[in-house]
Each structure stands twice: as structure tokens, then as C-alpha cells.
């Protein structure tokens, strides 16, 4: 009877069950590696290739997911900063810059009348000083980030804009409907005032107009602001892009849920119409 060889220190390997010799009982190396990566048990996998080694993975799945979340948050913060920058540009351009421009026109008027009409010149200089003080307050509010929301008397403020234009400016007619003005809340009144100021500024700078008109009317659930002039006009189709002023007007109208329409013809003047919904 043959003797069985004894294996010292090692138990004899069990034979696979009959009928399952070709069936794989354990996960492959690739599957185990993938599970380890997912579980965060390994940070990198180095695969030999010839005489060199190639790094296959540098981060676990959890680290990649966290990196994607951080990137998404950074993009959101960047978008918020860009929107805030756009708002500040609008407010500075349509508010402070236009106020300073109007003060310049007033002082230019004073130069021509200071000897002939000293009393009227003194009044205009006082108005200019008051306007500059308001600009200083606005700039301080911008710097501190605490710009207050103040109720606006739209009719009075538009009249003040027109009266500060000077004798060489176009003659503006103003028609503000009380029904339309009272339908506006503080935000709508403030935004429409800035739109009117920017539209008037565009006329002064570019239109070479003799007359202008500013009107505010209500039509059902809509308030319509229109600023017209009889100046040189232009071909709207030939404009490659809206200027900064028109861009700000359109952005303010969109912010109020409304829209801006621009119409113009050569030698026939221009018209800017802004329609916004009201309650």
C-alpha cells in the first residue's frame, strides 16, 4: 500500500466542487481594484508597462466628487460677483455719472451768463453744488454697500433733470400721468428714473436735437415710459451692438420684467420706449 506524503505546515488544498471547475469563484484583479478605488482604500494605481510605470489614478472617487462640488460652488460665487459688478456699473453710470454730466452742463451755462445774469448764475451754481453733494452721498453708499432704497417722486425728479440741462440743450416737454406714477412701487420708480436720465443723456450727447419729449402713461396693467427727440437719428440695422447706455436701459427694463424698444430713422429723430408690468 503506497504511503501518503505529508505536507508540513500547510493543509492540503481542497479540490473544487465537481462540475464547477471552470466557474470563477473570486472577483478578478480589475474588479477588486475598481472596488478599492470606490471605497477610497487606495489613492493611486501604478501599472507597469515595459520598463516604465504609468500612474492610472491619482484620486479616489470621493475626492473627485468633492473637487466637482468645489468647482460648482466657485462658479456660482463668480456668477454672483459678475452680476453684482454689472449692477454697480449700471448704478454708477446711470446715477452718479449722469448727475456729474448734468452738473457740468449747468456750470457751462453759468460761464455764459455770469456777467449778464449774476443772480441766476448764483442760483444755478447752488443747484450744481446740491447735486454734487447728492453724488457724494451716493458714492459713499456704494463704497459702504448700504445704499438705501428711497421713494422717488418721478414727476419732480424728471422735471429737475430737464431744468438742469442748460440753455443749449433741447427743449423738452414732460407729460407724466399721475395715474401711471402712482401705480409704480419704489423699485419701479427708481429704475424708470434712471432710464429716463440715461435716455436724456444719450440725446444730449448724440442726437443734435432741438426738441424732446418725455411721457409716462398707463395702459391696463402696463406702464409705458417714452423718451423722444427730433435729432439726426440713425439706422438701427447698422448698429453693430448696443452702446453702454442702451445696454443699461435694456437691462433695467428686463430686471423689472419689461422690455425696451428702440426706433429711429435718419434725419427723423429717435424714440426709446420702455414698458413694464404693474399690479
Helix and strand layout, with pairings?
Blueprint: H1 29-39, E1 45-49, E2 52-57, H2 61-113, H3 118-144, H4 154-163, E3 171-176, H5 178-182, H6 186-207, E4 211-219, E5 222-229, H7 244-255, E6 259-264, E7 270-277
Helix pairs in contact: 2-3, 2-6, 4-6, 6-7
Provide a count of the helices.
7
Question: SSE order, as H and E?
Answer: HEEHHHEHHEEHEE
For this structure, the CATH topology of the largest domain is: Heat Shock Protein 90
Report the average pLDDT across residues. Answer: 78
CATH class of the largest domain: Alpha Beta
Write down the overall geometry.
elongated
Main β-sheet: number of strands, strand sense, barrel status?
5 strands, mixed
> Number of DSSP strands?
7
Q: If strands are numbered along the chain, what order do they take across the biggest sheet? A: 3-4-5-7-6
Question: CATH superfamily of the largest domain, called what?
Answer: Histidine kinase-like ATPase, C-terminal domain
Describe this structure in words.
There is one protein chain. The protein has two domains: 60-148; 152-279, Heat Shock Protein 90 (2-Layer Sandwich). The N and C termini lie far apart (108 Å). It has helices at 29-39, 61-113, 118-144, 154-163, 178-182, 186-207, 244-255; strands at 45-49, 52-57, 171-176, 211-219, 222-229, 259-264, 270-277. It has 279 residues and is of the alpha+beta class. It is built from seven helices and seven strands; from the N terminus they run αββαααβααββαββ.
